Input
Amino acid sequence: MLSLLVFLPLVAAIVLAAVPRLGDAAARWLWLAVAAAEVVLVALVWARYETPTPGRLALDEQVQWIPGVRSSYHVGVDGLSLPLVAMTAVVFLACAVYSLKEARRPRLHAALLLFLQSVSLGLFVSADLILFFVFFDLSIVGMYFLIAGWGHVNAARSALQFFLYTFLGSLALLVGFIGLYVYADPHTFDMVELIAANPLAGHGLAGGLVLAAILLGLAVKTPTVPFHTWLPPAHTDASSVGSAVLAAVLLKMGTYGFVRIAMPMLPEAWRAWAWLIIVVGIVSVLYGALVALAQSNLKRMVAYTSVNHMGYVVMAVGAAGLVASDTASARGIAVTGAVTEMVSHGLITAALFLLVGTLHQRAGTYEMADFGGLAHTAPKLAGLFAVGAFASLGLPALSGFIAEFQVFTGSIAVAPVTAIALFGILITAALFLRALQRVFTGGLHGRSVGFADLHPREVWSTGILLGLSLLIGVYPAPLLAVIEPAASAVVTLLGR
Amino acid sequence: MTHTTANTSVAMTTTTTGLAALALWVLVGLPAVSAGLVIVVPALRRVAAPLATAVSTVVVAASIVVAVGRPTVAFPFVAGSEFALGVDGLSALVVPTVAVVTLLVLVFAAADVREHRARFNGLMLLFSASASLTATALTLPTLLTGWEVMGATSYALIGFWWWEQNRVSAGLTAFLTTRLADLGLYLAAGAAVGAGVGLSLDDFSAASGSGSGTGAGARDVIATGILVAALGKAAQLPFSFWLSRAMAGPSPVSALLHSAAMVAMGGYLLLRAEPLLAATAWAPTVAAWAGVLTALGLGAVAIAQTDLKQLLAASTGSQLGFVVLAAGVGSVAGGTAQLVAHAATKALLFLAAGAWLTALGTKHLDGLLGVARRWPLVGWCATVGAAALAGLPPLSLWATKDAVLAAALEQSPWLYAAGLAAAALSAAYAAKIVVVIWRRPSAVEAADAQAHLDEEQEGTRAVTRWQRIPLLPLAAGAALLGLLALPPLADAVARTVGGGTDGSASPRELAVSGAIAVVVGLAVWRWGTPSPAWAAGWLGLERAAHRVVVDPTLALARRLDQVDRRLDRGVWLLAGSVGGMTGGAGSAARPDDDGGGGGGGGERAASAPRGLAGLSAWLDQALDDTVHGLAGWIRRLGQLARRPQTGQMHHYYLQAVAVLAALLVLLLLPLVVR
Output
């Protein structure tokens, strides 16, 4: 089941890449069909999913792969990965709908995105570090080509910077993985075994070094301050779909690594370094929000809000490491909030990037000063962007609130100093409302004149994403029922 | 080692079923869903106004059912808490008030707001849903949901005429100011979970009463958070300035948001949290003085205004000061009566102001001279409202305010004296309205009034029947709702709302305040009112907020943006010196310096306080030095190693891999040793 989910897009990608005779239209529709099938498959997986006993994965499959180093093709899901798998499938479907009119090399575009979907899903279901690493690096390669091939302005340079930076980060990650392998007895790359083994327990210094390598790799990918500088140019110069996938899915690979690998496999080191992680989280929240506030380029602004939102996740998982008696439930709330934030940010930011992309597509610029009164000519865009903006600033009844409320209550409960980060949601509100005002309100002028409002495919693609955000915001129970047991399992593992 | 599931501290709400429970869902759910449909579905857009009125009528019925049936409903929500709604004695009085005012305002608006009706009615319905949600919330996440959605719809309604930037920015001011205060609720939630008392609103006070659940520290933090959030929403000092800006919205918006809901919900939250405040040593005193000082300060501001809506806005903050005072002195019943009576009174006055604005195109007092003579029904209704506002016996606010002041006298004579002074100010600004609208203008004044006509919008020179009808029930409310604070009803109200320590005002206190109202009213009629500049400008609060908060934040943001661009350059420089591709990267490493710095207002950055900007400048320089130093160091290292500096990518990779391989060897060493 999971393997089908992972490899179906890859097969489709190979078909698309290998059969040039397929017309552009056929390529677009094939992509859409596969993306829709993936969502159906995810729904089936979700329906069949039962919370596994702690230390196990649901729906797991294991095949021998590199027995010499005890690395196998091992996949499975739990409450940490299933929501991300579902979010990934939805985001790629939205991208497929959005790209129905993609004019530039649509066949290769579809193939590349299907490839990216495969590696993203593969990463989230991986239960083996080598497998995880392979998918991690393939995602970087795929995204490199997507930015370089379909981006604009300085795409080649930004893509290169993205590639070098995150690839170097992934090497650090590999070093950390090998450290885990080396210290495990017997040596293994299997995540489930590594989590059970807690291989670096009692090795204070080595544990710290291994964690440092893994954190460095994940911090670059997430990204956290100060390793975030690849992100704004990559986003500014990537295509809309590229930005949406990059922000929604690829950034989550970093934060997912925290809860899947770093926390449960290195609990002792994580507890020792919890305060550093919290501080990095708080700094990312405030720094990301403030720098976003100073932007005049709308897409760059949205890009910086990702640094801010990922800061909440980092802060929450850091706070979860402050193990003390009586705080298990609060730390559980923090981790639940962090995972919810990953899903929520994926949906909302993907929608925002798709919407913002229409500005460049129609008017050739993202500069806010070039627009004004855009709501006159593009009321649908204005309405959807407003919903996306409010979702992103954490307005209740939308998913961002569910995530951030839990992040904050959990974090403040164990580390009151994290209340400083509350100013993040205020600054985010300020920057989104300022942007909304500058671009959409006032008298019609600049590039807003003659701007064509959203096409149905653009309305639907972003509508799906924001609709889900609304659904989660009003009735989060089905999602949280999946996340909560896994979050409390992580908290328990951290207590070892 | 801890083995606890995340859910241990969730106290499940006991829910009820039946008609009342259904009505509670309808109360919140129906307007919320209708709002979405009215805005999105084209077929419904055309019938937005009648549909909204119909929905609102159903909501009034539902509010009465829940007030009688007192249901509780819930479903699972965020980790550690539920989405729980319930009606108790306090909300049984407030929920129908909000529902009735909403209906009357929507009826008025159907005649008054003639364009963009779908958006208007949709937003008003969404607002009404969130106000009901706020009033019935049983847990903190539920409260926050209603509370902040209320703020967001208020943003959209204040900026309803979005093609005028200043109105949108007024909405932005309102949203950001209230959200700043809302952070208190997030803080309170964290403190409550940290103390292990859970997120149920009743548990805050219950646990704090027992003294074992929440420690003194946590209880104080929770109380602080709730107090700050409530003061922000209720436009109390020092947050008041957003309410002045909020007058940029349509008048019916003010008639709902700035009378019965939104602002009133700030006072309501404090009444609800009164047991929690009372459980701390300091919160009642702080709340009482915050309330009474706002009543005084904004009373003075109201007197100085020359714009009717601005006057009413200041008066709203001032009157809610009495509600906040009530929460501080434990007069929950008196505060509730004041809240309900003020809702009717102020909705009435805002609707009258709106009717005149639509008809004459002005809300300037000079433009409204003698307007009551032109439309007598509206004039008389407004007069009843103003007289009630003045605290003239036997009208509503006279009795309700005295109930609060009686409780204040038990706490401190100073509070009582300050409250009486604020009451005198109310009488003065209310009298100012009455004098203006009934005055026969002299020839000069008439010419002046003529000049103000149509200054805001094209006037219709007519007040339609459906603009007049909603005024009548509101006038009745403004006249009669004082009964809630007088025997025999006062005791029943006190029993219903519970909590607090209520006694009603003595006849002597009632006589004193009545006399003050009469005397001040006559004095204003005879001599007029002063208009000091400090009060006319709302105490300079908005300017202060810009100077102290907004400008430094923007300056810091711009500095950090520069820091960030340098950091990016530094990374390229570093990469270049490692890989020997300084030449290639150097030319590429000219990241987009254009377009930076954020939008407009460079001179503001210069005038910003040195503190924050100075710090970030230092940070900037230090970062730059470090990056350059590190880059140079690595470059020398590279030269030492005499690597061929070909500037090609694969060399860069090779060296990166070499460094990592070295790390790897370090890690593998223990294995070999073992």
